[in-house]
């Protein structure tokens, strides 16, 4: 999900926008944050200069800095996979792996604290961030509810608690950097199996 100025609005006829420009702008945002800039201090001027574009190019695409930064952060993650419905485990694992994929783990670890700080400082940013992550959460909720219906997850399992238990270890590993005692490439699968063992329904307990 993105929250750019294009969302829900038809574009005027003209030359199609170069997708490489948006990618350069996103890369500029993430690079500046990873180099130590706070979201509060980061300016559109600095982003434009880093990306090699004019400010007008940015304002044609996003209504403000908050929307741009959140789109850049959302672009760090892989596209949310469509659940295949074969099993709760397979669908949740695909969702978790899509969140864990990163082109630069160290850079991600430096960006996440910036986001957390700005969410506490800026209510507007926090609300927009919630909109960005809610789509991924809702897909996870649907998978878990389906698991309850099929007996893969026990009926008294709290959906929001299960989602939190699945996401928190992954976030901590990103926030503080990969734990050398953990295998990051298999962490999602290990966390998922431990959580599912605790909430397994009758279908998985046979």
TrEMBL record:
Under the heading Gene3D superfamilies, the entry gives: Homeodomain-like (1.10.10.60), Tetracycline Repressor, domain 2 (1.10.357.10)
- HTH tetR-type domain: which residues? 19-80
- A Gene Ontology MF term for this entry? DNA-binding transcription factor activity
Q: Does the keyword Transcription apply?
A: yes
* Alphabetic keyword roster: DNA-binding, Transcription, Transcription regulation
PANTHER family in the cross-refs: HTH-TYPE TRANSCRIPTIONAL REGULATOR RUTR (PTHR30055), TETR-FAMILY TRANSCRIPTIONAL REGULATOR (PTHR30055:SF148)
**From which residue to which does any coiled coil extend?**
none
Where in the chain is the DNA-binding region found?
43-62
Q: State the name under which the record lists this protein.
A: AcrR family transcriptional regulator
Against InterPro entries, the record matches this protein to:
DNA-bd_HTH_TetR-type_CS, Homeodomain-like_sf, HTH-type_TetR-like_transc_reg, HTH_TetR, Tet_transcr_reg_TetR-rel_C_sf, TetR_C
Instruction: List, alphabetically, the PROSITE patterns matched.
Output: HTH_TETR_1, HTH_TETR_2
